[in-house]
Amino acid sequence: MLFPIECLGCRQKDEILCNNCISKIHRAERETDKNIIAVFDYRDEIIKKAIWSLKYHHKKYLGKRLGELLYEFLLEDISDLRIEVSGRSIFVIPVPISSKKTKVRGYNQSLSIAKGFSAQVGKNILEIKNKIIFKKIETTSQAKIMTRGERLENIKGVFELKNKEIIKGRTIIIIDDVTTTGGTINEMIKVFKNAGAKKVIGFAIAH
User: Which of 10, 42, 108, 200 is the most exposed place for a label (fewest CB within 10 A)?
Assistant: First the structure.
């Protein structure tokens, strides 16, 4: 009652993002890496506001809605993956953030998105694995680094796996809020591939 929910685009009551505003958000057109699919254009004011509200203004509930949209817009890609896995669940792994950021923010925004994404089907189809990979090195925020080369160097070798044996032969979807250079997701893909993953693909809300 004190903080009623309203659409970030048009301020319609009781809607986080209404269908009308969602239909107006620009889709991602800029090229991403071949292993990464982004849904929306980060330059769009509505999607930028949604991600900033999720990451920096403690509106964790936005993660669920963004995850639902990620599933909706990438349903065809998900269906293709389901055909390939032959009845096994697909691991859904959010990009981890540092313990320092977790303490400040109170949650991992990519995990919030992953939960909304995975909730669209049963656990036997999309299975969240949140604690299987972690950042072993505290790095400078990618958002604070201007050049592509520096961003790629900043993220190199920072991830480490737990329970490597359960990765072998699995299909994995990495979930992130925003991808720019693709460095973070690609670094995770490399780690999973080295552990024997069958296929790894990155899904992001925006690029």
Answer: 10
Place of tokens 């072998």: 168
Q: Which one-letter DSSP state was computed for residue 160?
A: E
Residue 93, helix vs strand vs coil: strand
Could you give the domains of the chain?
26-206 (3.40.50)
pTM over 0.85: yes
Q: Kindly list the averaged pLDDT for each block of 10 residues, start to end, along the chain of length 207.
A: 79 92 94 90 96 92 96 96 92 92 90 97 94 82 67 79 94 96 93 97 97
Q: What's the residue count for the chain? A: 207
Buried-exposed string 157-194: b where 16+ CB fall within 10 A, e elsewhere:
ebbebeebeebeebbbbbbbbbbbbbbbbbbbbebbee
What DSSP line would sit under 18-71, residue for residue? -HHHHHHSPBP-S---TTEEEEE-TTSHHHHHHHHHHHHS--THHHHHHHHHHH
